[in-house]
Input
Amino acid sequence: MDNCIFCKIVRGEVPSRKVYEDELVYAFHDINPVAPVHFMLIPKAHVASMAQLEAEHEPVMGRIMALAARLARQEGSSEGFRVIVNTGRIGRQDVMHVHVHVIGGTEVLPPMLVRR
Ligand code: 5GP
Ligand code: ZN
Output
């Protein structure tokens, strides 16, 4: 996708702080972190959001989930972390290339959502 910012990051056209890369997955630190550990894992091949995932995406998304745990430990979240996949308008997704946020560090995180 020519104008997708995360595709540009995968291609190296936009700089990023890489955490991990293989033939299917790219992981990099969020530019505007919400916690001491905050990186994202993305499939290298463009998919707009979690709502667009199909059976063909199972290998890469499964790999991302297992990597999330390994990389969270590597980055300093050995006692737990939070995984967030904002999806679509209701999920307040800003970048339309599916991405798995991994958020953690040493401090206990705030509640996931505020109850109304
Ligand atoms: P969303 O709200 O779509 O789940 O989150 C998008 C995330 O991507 C945000 O946390 C934002 O800080 C991050 N982000 C947006 N543009 C860039 C960029 O160019 N580089 C990096 N490293 N992160 C970005
Ligand atoms: Zn993309």
Remarks:
- The chain has a mean pLDDT of 97.
